[in-house]
Amino acid sequence: MDSPGTRPGPSSRSSGSGSAAIPPAARAALALAVPLAAGLAAHRPDYGAVASLGALFGVLAATAPDRRTRLRTVTACLLLGGTGAALGGLVQGHGWVACAALTGLALVSGMLSSLSRTASLGGLMLLLNAVLAAGPPASGPRWVPPLLIAGGGLLVLVLCAPAGVRTGRPPERPPVSAARPGPRRGPRAFCSSAAPWNYGLRLALCVGLAQALIVLMPFERAYWVPVTVVFVLKPDLGPVVSRALLRAAGTAAGLLAAVAVFAGVPRGWWDVPVLVLLGALMPALSGRGYGAQTAAVTPIVLLLSDMANLEGAELVGQLMWDSLIGCAVVLVAGHALWPRAGRFERA
Hints:
Layout lengths: L23 H18 L3 H17 L5 H25 L4 H17 L4 H17 L10 H17 L15 H4 L7 H6 L1 H23 L7 H9 L7 H25 L6 H16 L3 H20 L6 H21 L11
């Protein structure tokens, strides 16, 4: 699991603020470790792991160079991610009903991606959280995971918020030519445009096929196949073929790192400093490309999965296989069957 986000900007200082923002490495380390530590202290490491997972999504969304855009993006991802988790929980364990619901949600998520960068990330979190919530059974009431995920995202929002006293100087507005606002499109014009439907239908087809495989075939952790589909099939963030190859390579590297963590670190409070280290490394590795970002995020997801259900260590080989299946679904159903798909992919 990883982010489609952009590279962090060279500066973390926001216009109009009297102090520097929290550096991305420190923000990621705190956001991932604090919820898990709170869960361990409350003797509910599973709850802490789910909240840390929500924080991970927020960290992946908080990549914009200026603070105001980060706040807007994280807020959108927080609201849509919590909505997705709630919707996914409603269809969890319902087989073909879940398949149909997630396919429809994939269409909506894909169409949202053509609106703006913030809408693209928000739509991704909507679908991603729905897929995760519809996967393994949650411990406790179904309303708990959405609240925990939202709580983790809220922590990231707090860490992204201004930390100092405003100077009173309003931020400078970019020139109109640099802003490239473009014409505003109404709902009718948007729905009649080719690009939203192209990506929405491609994503819906691939997610539907992945969910159908889950119903028809025995998977240990079925969510990993559609999760791979969701992340790889992001044509607004780069060519699909290269993202599929980088996803496979990055997952393999991340799984090797996870094996080392599981072999050398006892479960419990020792996982907190491990998350601090992995979280601090994530922004630097994410800036080196999609493959490196996947390698950074994969051990974090496995570690949190192990804390939530004590099965992460046993799923290393299965998750690699599931990732390859998800990549194959995207390459065949989301790329090869769409001859003109390359027109909508950003190089």
